[in-house]
Amino acid sequence: MRLLIKLGGTLLDSPESLDGLARQIAALPASGHETVVVHGGGKQMTRFLTERGVESRFVNGLRVTTPEVADAVLKVFAGTVNKTLTGALLRAGARAAGISGLDGLLAESVALSPELGLVGRVVQTNPEILNCLIGGGFLPVVACVGGSADGSVYNVNADQMAVACASGFRAERLLFLTDVPGVMDAGKAVLPRLTPSDCDRLIAEGVAAGGMEAKLRSACAALTGGVGQVLIAPGAAPDVIARLLGGESLGTALVPEEAPC
Questions:
Q1: Helix pair 196-204, 210-224: axis angle to 10 deg
Q2: Pairing of β 58-59 and β 62-63
Q3: First and final CA of the chain: distance in angstroms?
């Protein structure tokens, strides 16, 4: 199975969580899974900027990215976070290779809007670098940094990066491993299964807002882009990846409208 796993930055901030997820991911090739990992690092980015006296400003949940912040994006996302995760995967036995969406123009991007500065929108995915690495027995680990042919660097939302890579890579499943138990209804109960129309309803009713609204919109875009199933699940749950791939109802599964119950 072609599989893309997106890891939230919060899960990578704890050495115990990081090493546990790395061991699970490193075991996937032996089961025949062609895997790509995409990671965030928003918590680490905010901490890095705060330590240097730089205020983090957000518009619609996206970090306003000045040239100073873009430099930090490279240092934190493509540097510290990416290489720390790559190192953990190497320790766990995976042949991990840390890259970003800038490398090989994997995630070719343009500026999303003037008010956000160097926040990028992926306009084209060039998955050749992923296929080349996987064909050579490597595990690509992708930082959420996009780029353009003129060498410009963009800060790309990690969920959107995951969707772009999953669609270009033709992943059969996309796993969003997060710090929440799944998508919840108004009563805070986890919803086991959603279709895009269900997601639209949750957003319209204000039940899914903020980061979850953005994640649901990204998940629906993945389904439109050809990914067969998107799973939003708690990354801290024991053996979460094996349980999800084994069909256990854990977190929330998003499926196309025509998918059978």
A1: 160
A2: antiparallel
A3: 21
| CATH number, residue 63 | 3.40.1160.10
According to the model, what pLDDT value does residue 65 have? 96
Q: Which of 114, 137, 169 is the last residue of a domain?
A: 169
- List, in order, residues 6 or more apart from 103 with CB less than 8 Å away: 129
> How many domains would you assign to the chain?
2
Whether residues 102 and 212 share a domain: the answer is no
pLDDT at 260 over 80: no
Per-residue pLDDT of 162-204, as tens digits, reads 999 999 999 999 999 999 999 999 999 999 999 999 999 999 9
> What residues does 230 pair with on adjacent strands?
174, 254
H/E element holding 204?
helix 196-204
Q: Are residues 2 and 112 in the same domain?
A: yes
Residue with tokens 């039940």: 207
Q: Residue 145 in contact with residue 100, Cβ under 8 Å?
A: yes
With contact defined as beta carbons under 8 Å apart, do 43 and 9 qualify? Answer: yes
pTM for the model stands at 0.94
Strands 107-111 and 252-254: unpaired
**Residue 261: per-residue pLDDT:** 44
54: which residues sit within 8 A by CB, 6+ positions away?
68, 69, 72
For residue 195, the enclosing domain spans: 172-261
Q: Which tens digit of pLDDT belongs to each residue from 100-158? A: 999 999 999 999 999 999 999 999 999 999 999 999 999 999 999 999 999 999 999 99
